[in-house]
Design brief:
195 residues; alpha/beta; 9 helices; elongated
Length: 195
């Protein structure tokens, strides 16, 4: 694989047919990774990617690298970072959400599982809905200024949809019940060296 000028992407079917020959790196948080990842994927969170550059570069010399995240945004950023450092990688179109939507299995390691039984998306929906209802109730019962809570949540949801990011999910991920065991980056990099 040569270093691309534009990001290289693999469709779901392409990635599935080549999965056995790819080094798959999942750049999501440990909690997201634990909620389900492509078979054989190694978890190197995006914020740890720089420290793993030498191992990823070496792995890319042995096999093509596929970088995945939930939807494809973080993996595109990771591929750009890798390309800046001389390592070619492809990103999975649509990420793990698209993989699962096509009916392909995700691995879920029990040892890394978060303590929460609810997915992050479900927690965000509950929190957003609760805040909207609270703002509406307080706006009616106490003072109309409390309606700004509902307006703020609505604005945040629109921003989240437009940017494909979620600040509320980032905040909820910090709660104790959402914290899985952290990624053992040393063990992950050792596994990457053997691929």
């Amino acid at each position: 694989m040569s270093i691309p000028v534009t990001p290289v992407t693999l469709g779901i079917d392409q990635a599935r047919s080549r999965l056995h020959e790819l080094t798959v790196i999942d750049v999501r948080t440990p909690g997201e990774y634990a909620s389900g990842h492509l078979p054989g994927a190694l978890n190197i969170p995006l914020d740890s990617l720089r420290s793993a550059l030498p191992e990823i570069r070496a792995a890319a010399g042995r096999a093509d690298v596929l970088v995945v995240c939930a939807s494809g945004n973080r993996s595109r950023n990771a591929c750009a970072l890798l390309a800046e450092h001389g390592t070619a990688a492809a990103t999975l179109v649509g990420g793990t959400k698209a993989w699962a939507a096509e009916g392909y299995d995700l691995q879920r390691p029990a040892a890394c599982a978060p303590r929460s039984g609810w997915s992050m998306e479900r927690q965000v929906r509950l929190t957003a809905g609760t805040l909207v209802l609270t703002g509406l109730a307080l706006g009616q019962a106490v003072h109309p200024a409390f309606l700004l809570i509902s307006a703020g949540v609505a604005g945040g949801l629109v921003f989240s949809a437009l940017t494909d990011t979620c600040g509320m999910a980032a905040l909820l991920a910090r709660l104790p019940h959402n914290r899985p065991r952290t990624t053992d980056l040393t063990a992950t990099l050792a596994a990457l060296r053997t691929r």
